[in-house]
Design brief:
Length: 537
Amino acid sequence: SLGPLYKSLPNISPLVSSVEETPEPIPTTVKGTIPTWIHGSLLRNGPGKFEFGNQHYNHWFDGMALMHRFQIEDGQVMYRSRFLRSDSYKQNSERNRIIVSEFGTLALPDPCKNFFQRFLSRFEMIKPTDNASVNFVKYKGDYYVSTETNYMHRVDPDTLESKQKVDWSKFIAVNGATAHPHFDPDGTAYNMGNSYRNKGAFYNIIRVPPERDGPEDNLEGAKILCSIAPRDKSKPSYYHSFGMSENYVVFIEQPIKMDLFKIVTGRLRGKSLNEGVYWDPNQETTFHLIDKQTGKEMPVKYHAKALSTFHQINAFEQDGFLMLDMCCSDDGQAINNFLVQNLRQSGEALDEMYNTMSRPLPRRFVLPLNISSETPLEQNLNTRPDSTATAVCRTKNQVLSLCLLPEDLHGEDLKDYGGLEFPHINYARYNTKPYRYYYGCGFRHLVGDSLIKMDLESKKFKVWRQPDLYPSEPVFIPSPNAEKEDDGVILSVIITPVKDKSTFLLVLDAKTFEELGRAEVPVNIPYGFHGVFNSSA
């Protein structure tokens, strides 16, 4: 799944460079028309500062969280941004050096300490960071910014000011949680997080109730629904997100592994956390299904060949099957490719790195749900018409297991756009349900360089792409009284490395994928990760 090879990829180093914050709202210049029915704010998160003093972060994920707000009212847009005043940010700023270690950067011992103190500091565990730079998430009506450690920050969605640092481990026995929770229609949130106990690591399914009990309440009432033991408790899998259908949480145990011994001893060896994360292509991928009502894991094990996934598209149940749609790569080394120095490369070195990376492609796995001792072995159980995915039942030591092969949710022509990542759907109405459209970024570079709308019925897609413009993850907003699945707009923040302060918010008609309007904002924004639309309608 490498796709076509490319030469002379443009340098994008300005997209991974530090910028200033814009804490007071500034107006934008609107070209075209922004529909007046849009009321609310696009909130986005991502790294915005890559050095303190003369010390630089090594990994893209390490940069200090910079939050953005595009407020849309009456066809006009106001913009503001603010660095998250995390403990990491404040400590680093006070000393003008990197004090707190991040995923790919080990903080050096304090030069003000004597030799013996510096020596002893190598025996300390790396403390988790509260630099919550990955996403905006919502629990019980409150907005938080989140990364994948145990710390989140509750923020004011209007001013972007941090209101409270919140520690998952004070509420439930987990050492972190993903930045990609799922939600039931009533607002109940589901998430996943690891715990590290005397008996090794466990994967945990978390449920957070939808209602607050009082003004001080944040994660009260959160419960661990289910704990799953990894295949190897000293080397659990890394995961960025998970799938959810109406009745099941789907955990994808992929062969991107975390060597806990290497991570625990990292400081002693002078190595950062990412040095303990590795890809093992000789291991299978295992799908775990957990019943959301009972918290029980289904006894059947579902297996596929080694793959890596960061984001799921959707999951739904129909006619005794669970369809799991996600963006997958056949190689899981990408997480260690996103070093800042790699993203800032140019010329042949940049081309070579991009051309050796596996492309993320949308695929569907079909998981039969009604498996018993009567289920026939060694034949394809997927009876869905027009589906080429397979599921074959086998027994091993009296345990039923299914071997899965996916089907492609795209035609061959998607590879010409570098595959697809940062998938989005009409979540409010179609998550956990059969659906027709998904949206995402095409990746003909190390970051997204096009916007794509895919029609699952025809496997045909529409594209928005312009030279030297790099769009963020598309966010779908349904129009008032929407009847069709794609009645609405797509919002994406567009940045460019070739012109200073030339950012704009793009608004596309989700049905035609034609541009309706753009709001130009005279600031520089680095390439970010994720965001949400906070409706004020």
